[in-house]
Amino acid sequence: MLSAYPACFFKEENGYSVIFPDLNHLATCGETLDEALAMAVDCLAGYLYWMEEDGESAPPPSSINKINLAAIAEELDLDAFFGESFVNIITVDVAEYAKTHFKKSVKKTLTIPAWLNAAALEHNINFSQVLQDALKSKLHLGS
Q: Which residues are CB-contacts of 88 (< 8 A; sequence separation ≥ 6)?
C-alpha cells in the first residue's frame, strides 16, 4: 500500500533539510536535491515501518495546501532559508521498501578457530543467530 506525506524542503548552505511536519517534525537531509529526495523516502519508510512494528498508528497526512512553510521555517529556526523552500509529496510502499531495506539478510563470511567451530557444531549452535544476538547486544539494540 502506498503511503504519501508532505515534506518541506529547505535549501541550506550545505544541501537540503527535509522536514515531515505531520510526523513530529521527522527530519533528514541530503547534500543534493536528488540525495535529499532519496533520504526522504528512506526516512519516511523507516518511520512508518517502525511505527507499525511497534503497533502504533501513523497520523493522517495533511493536504499539501495546508502546509505553512513560513511557520515551519520560523518554528525550526530556518527563516534564513525560507526563500528557497518548497513542499513535495513523498510516497513509498512501506511493505515493499522493508523487504529490500529492512528485512533483507546479508551474507557475511567470518573466521573462527577450528576448535571453536567443532565445539559449536557439536552443540548444534546456529551461527547466524549467535552473531545476530551478539551484535544486537554489543550495539544495545535489544532483542
A: 6, 7, 9, 37, 40
CA–CA dist 67, 10 (Å, integer): 14
Cell numbers standing for residue 94: 512501506
* Cα–Cα nearest to 22, from 48, 2, 54, 55: 48
How does pLDDT run across 60-94, given as a tens digit for each residue?
A: 999 999 999 989 888 888 766 666 889 999 999 99
Cell output for 30 = 541530503
Rounded Cα distance, 62 and 56, in Å: 18
Q: What is the pLDDT of residues 119-128, one digit of tens each?
A: 999 999 888 8
Grid cell of 126 as nine digits: 546456529
Buried b (16+ CB within 10 A) or exposed e, 57-83: eeeebeeeeebebeebbeebebeebee
Q: Which domains does the chain have, with CATH numbers?
A: 2-101 (3.30.160.250), 105-143 (no CATH)
As a whole number of angstroms, the distance between CA 28 and CA 10 comes to: 11
Count of Cβ atoms closer than 10 Å to residue 127 Cβ = 13
